[in-house]
Specification:
The protein is mainly β. It is built from one helix and 16 strands. The protein has one helix at about 225-260; strands spanning about 10-20, 20-30, 35-40, 55-65, 65-70, 80-85, 95-100, 110-115, 125-130, 135-145, 150-160, 165-170, 180, 185-190, 195-205, 205-215. It has a four-stranded antiparallel β-sheet with strand order 3-4-7-6, with no helix packed on it.
Length: about 260
Amino acid sequence: MKNITSLDHQIYTCIFNIFPSGPFEKEINLNVYVPPEVSVFPDVTPVVGDSEVILVSCIATSRPASEVTWNLGDLNSSLKIKTDISAGPNDYYTVSSRLIGVPSKELNEQNVQCVVNHTSLKKEIVLNYALVIHYPPQIVYITSVNPPTTHQEFLCIAVANPKPTLYIWSRENKALTGRVDFDRLEIQLNSDSNGLYKCNASNQYGNGVGTLQMQFSTDISPDCTTCWILFTTLIVLNVAAFFVWRFNLCSKQIFDLREGSW
């Protein structure tokens, strides 16, 4: 038979006649191997705080059944594997292998591999998958963005998955002054800036709060721009001095060359 397809997977009967004995029949079972179709996906997105759940599933459909295994690396002792095989029409089989574990922040973005072997394959199929675990903001902190001048800009950073969708800035026992832009806060530096600042970051699973104690000393001029002007001026003077020195050196070398040529 030529140009065989998966539809040719049948039992065929060969009938032939031998004189004078008469007709003979012979059944031929034609097995057509069908390579596996493989997919890796989470049933639902695991969330920190859940008990044991299915973290990810690897499904392979083929004829005959495939062998499905996992490469888990360091996660081998912390995850369980459950594999089921179901038969379909025309001798197709679906192998479902699932990773089961307790969701944690540490599992998020950990790499696992689903490995599929089949009679029709010369080389195994390896599918990489990075585990996705959702969790509320667990670490929130406030950091400065720019060198202090007359104003200071702060950024609220939150470790969460997915990223926070809401940031609420506040100031303990005082009204919040300054300009708020989502996860950023810009305030003017003066004696009234002192106090405890808070950033409340949240996503659909919860929230976390970061704090920053601002203590501005009145002994230091609030206008630090002067410092930066002096610093910049010093750099300019040094660069200018360097070019003057190079110019004088080149002039002397040219003069010496001219003297030598006479």
